[in-house]
Amino acid sequence: RDFLRRVLFAGGSDSPYARAMRGQITLSQLFSEMEEGCKHHASACGVTLPPGFAVARPFEEMAAEGTINAPLLRAAGVLRRNGFKTCVLTNNWVDDSAGRLGTARLMTLLRRHFDLVLESCRLGALKPDPHIYSRALDALRAKPQEVIFLDDIGENLKAAREMGMATVLVRDTHAALKELEELAGVRLLDGAEPLPTACRPSDVAHGYVPIRPGVQLHFVEMGHGPVVCLCHGFPESWLSWRYQVMEKAGRRVGHGVWGVLGLSHHPGDIPGGAGWGPAGDLFRAPPTGSPQGIAQSVLVGHDWGGAVVWNMALFYPERVRAVASLNTPYHPADPAVDIVEKTRSYPIFDYQFYFQEPGVAEAELEKDVGRTLKVLIRSARPERASSPGPLLAGGLLVGFPEDPPASQILHGPELQYYIQRFQKSGFRGPLNWYRNMRPNWRWALSAKDRKIVMPALMVTAGKDVVLRPSMTKGMEEWIPRLHREHIEDCGHWTQMERPATLNRILVEWLEGLPPDAPLPKISKL
C-alpha cells in the first residue's frame, strides 16, 4: 500500500488521486493510470511486481474494511430533529469499477440521513481547496460562522477554520461528539435509543385503489418480494409508519426480500370524502390490480388498523400469511353484550360517542387541523396522556392551548404533511368508522366462533392509557399461535415513540415465520 500511495499522490495537485477526486478521471481510469505508474516506478527502482499484481485489489480490501461511524450518524439525526441542516462534504471519485454497487449503497444511505451530500467529483474541487467549502456554504445557504465542520484530517479543518467555521477533529468518536455537543448546544451523548432511518413521501411510490363508488384507498409501496402490509389508525397517516417502511423494504428476511405496502385509511383525495359504510365494505378483498394482485401478505396494524388486520385474518384467512397488532387486542364479538353498552362502560372511550353525530366532530377538528393533530398525537411522557381521554364538556379539544406545541413524535415536515392530507380529505371518512360501531359488531357476530389460526403477534405498550395491556388477556384462546411482546416505556403511538425497539420485534418475528407453502398446480383448462 505504501508503494501504491507514492504512485497515487505523485504530482501533487495533478496527481491521479487529485484528478479522480475532481472527477476528471473515473475510478477505472485511475486504476489504469496507476497500473502503468506502478510498472514504471517498479522498473526505475529495480523492483519486480508480484505475479497477478492488480491495483484494484487494495482498493477493494480498503472498501471491505470500511465501516459507517454509527454514533456520528445518530448524532446527525439528532441535530436534524433539532433544526440543524446537515451535510456530508466528501472527497470521492466517480465509481465505474466492479465494486460500484457498494459505493451506490453507501451514498444512498448517507442521503437518507443527511439533508445534503456533496461529492468532490461532482463539484470539480476537493478538500482542502477553499472553493469546495464555498460551494458547500452556498448549497446550505449558510455563513461560515454558522457552520460546525467535522473531519478526520487536520489539513481539511485548517482551511475551514480560516474561513470562519468552527471545527472538530474526529479521531476519538466520544471526544468529538462531546465537543460537537458543546458547540451545538444539543445533547448527543445521553444514551437515548437511536431512531431508525425514516422515509419521506418522496421516497415511496404512491397509488390509489377504488374500494367502493366514490371512495379510494391510498397506499404507498417500497421494496419487492413477499409483502408486509402496514395499516394505521386515527388520526394518522401512512407516514406514522415512516420508521418501519425504510427498515423492512429491501431487508432480506428468511426466505426472500420483503416489500412494504402502507395503507392510508383516508377516503382518497375526495374533499370531505364519503367515508366507509359497514365493515363488510371496508374489509372486502380488493379487485385485481396493484396492490390488488397481491394474493397473500403479512398484515401489521396499529390502533383501529389493528382491528382491521384482526378481522382480515378472521374473514379472509386465505389472504393473510401472518398477522400482527400494535396495542389493539382481539376478542370475538359477544352476542350477549351489546357493543355500544360495552364501549360506554369504559370512560376512556367517551370520545367515540362524541363522534357519532355527523358534522359535529368534523366542525371542531377541521377548524384548525394543525391544532387538532398537535392535541391528539402527543408524546407518551408520564405527565401527558398519549391518546384522547375522557371527554370534557364542549368538545374533544376543550382545555388545551390555542397553539399547543408540536409533540416530539410528530413535528416539522412530518406534521406539515399530516396537516396537508387532513386539510384535503377532512375527517369524515375516519370518523365514519366510529359511526358504524353497531353494524360492524353485527357483522363480526357471523364469525364469533372462529379462531385466527395463522402465526400472530401482539405487541402491548405499558403506558398506553387507552388500549391497556390488560385488555389483551385471554387472546390465546382465540389465537392459538399468538406470540407476545411488550414495550413498557411506550404510550399509544408505538411505531413513532419506540421505533427502534418495535423494528427489532417485528423483524425478529418476520424472520421466524415458516416459509411459504408451495403453490398448487392449477390446470390451464
What would you note in describing this structure?
- By secondary structure, this protein is of the alpha/beta class.
- It folds into three domains: 1-43 and 54-63, no CATH class; 69-184, Rossmann fold (3-Layer(aba) Sandwich); 205-512, Rossmann fold (3-Layer(aba) Sandwich), CATH 3.40.50.
- It is 39% helix and 14% strand.
- The protein is built from 22 helices and 14 strands.
- The chain has helices at 2-9, 16-21, 27-45, 56-65, 70-81, 100-113, 120-123, 130-140, 154-162, 173-184, 242-248, 279-282, 304-315, 339-344, 350-354, 360-367, 369-376, 412-425, 428-435, 437-445, 494-497, 499-511, and strands at residues 87-90, 116-119, 148-151, 166-169, 205-212, 215-223, 227-231, 252-253, 256-257, 259-264, 297-302, 320-326, 456-461, 482-487.
- The strands form four sheets. It has an eight-stranded mixed sheet, sandwiched between helices. The chain has a two-stranded parallel sheet with strand order 1-2.
- α1 packs across α3 (27-45), α11 packs parallel to α22 and α17 (369-376) crosses α18.
- The model is unreliable at 250-257, 265-290 and 379-387 (pLDDT under 50).
